[in-house]
Records
---
Amino acid sequence: MFSMISEYQETIEAIYDKQPKVVIAASGMITGGRVLSYLERYIELPETTVIIIGYQAEGTLGRKLLEGDKEVKIYGKYYPVKANILEIEGLSAHGDQKDLVNWLSALENTPTKVFLVHGEKLPADELRIKIIERYGFDCTIPLMGQEFELK
């Protein structure tokens, strides 16, 4: 049986229903939403399996689970992680460095400046260096609040 849950009360009922279940939740890197309510109830149970799909940014609960944290904070309370944490890779819609560098090669008009504003610091800097080395584009990673005059 498959049930689509759209109301929070239905979520609570599903959480406390003792029947085995598969929960598919849009997690947003497990930083908010109802997925936290499910985890709050099930993360301590060794018979629980959490499958994480897609990129998990540094500092997010999803990343902490993937990195093997033994305890996580949910709604201000700490829970021991006894659930089995698995990852399915390759389903993200985000392009990787190779995709982005190749995309730049298809541009008809050469950019005068490239700004890298998404991603973690070290990989972003590696991408910046690749763009400079391969194309010679002026490429920068702006600091928060930094302003640029575009011509």
---
Amino acid sequence: MRLAFFTVLLMVTVVLAQQPTAQQTGVLRLRVRVKADDTAPLKGLARKRFFLIPGTLEQNRALITAIEQQPLTTRDCYYKQHNASAQLINWLQEGDCESVYCRSIENEFVTGPKAVPEFANAFAANHTEFGNDLIALQWLTNYLSPDLRDGFYKDRQRTLQTLLKQTGMIQSVMTDQKGSAYFTDLGPGTYVISNVIPTELGQTLVTWNCEVQIKPEDLATEKPYLISNRKDKTVKCVGIEKPKPLCAAD
């Protein structure tokens, strides 16, 4: 009986020893802290997308060059080109929005001193059809033109797809309200962190393209990585800032 027990125990030990161990991976904790200008406080950059691209800067040189040389229409210029009202442009600026889906459209933006003409007109058209204030407000965006509703956002998505179509497997994350995001399940190697499309910040455009290494000792851990548009000893990646281009009609 005892011999049979030890035989079974030995077999179980051998089987367990032959089982492959789970491969350890790393986590890159991205924290984005920026200043809109020299007098502004440092704050987290919320709701911005960043990409983690395998390889070094040199290995991704063609992509980096394309990112740096891409023609870019800023948000304000896009909406001016599509005859948006000053009130709508201000509403988008206040929420740092690329489309009208970025924030809630409250009653105060339909009637009264804060009313946005495009929202007021869409609300009136919707109300005529449904005869209900709540429904008219909830479905207001359906009565905006596609260009004003989400045309700018879709233009940016097409630009991203064009730039990244030749790139291999990448990760993308969106920063939270505090400017933090996490790249997970990373193997050891060199990567490029990039926002691909410059971020509008005050009167400048900021582009980040920086190398980061995940070393074997970083696996099964959380590696912090601070990026900013201002130099500091704790900042790992400093963005390149350029003045915003003027709109065609300016």
---
Amino acid sequence: MRDTISTLKAITLILAMALGFWLQGPRAHAATSETLVVAGGCFWCVEADFEKVPGVLGAVSGYTGGQAANPTYKQVTAGGTGHYEAVEITFDPAQISRQQLLDLFLRSIDPTDDGGQFCDRGASYRSAIFAASPAQRQMAQQSIGAAERALGVKVVTPVLPATRFWPAEAYHQDYYKGQSLVLTRFGPLRQAKAYDRYRQSCGRDQRVKALWGSAAAFAK
């Protein structure tokens, strides 16, 4: 009987430990994730690009860099809030590094344009990298330096102090794969199709390929 009780206690202890590890698993994974906030013009495009990258756990469209609290899309694009259209990228550093993401980012935009990006003009559409620490700033500056050497011209994309990131309205999230019907200048289209038509007509991929050649990231 004592042997049976001892065995049962041992099994119970093992099961309890296993359950503890299982419960801690998601927390441990979450604890290893990091975020990178960048602005690269239309946040639909940046979100769509980076959600395809292995090691990226998710991307959220939003606003940052300005002073206005709870900004709306209308307020930001109208100007005066100081906010950029930006994307918060959550990634697993064990699968992809911040430096790699920064290099991809710079090769997915026109970092020589300080007036916006592609067909989207104005302060809210300018490019930027947001750094939350001196180490992050240094990494961003290293990637910018490498981009300047590769292009042979000055990169105007700034490294700015990270401020609060405000997620954009729900209809902006995952716009590139949405199936809601929207009215566009091309007529009524599903969101995913409207996104494709917008990206093509805006000349984003064409400009990135012309600037970066074979090093262009994400350009179709």
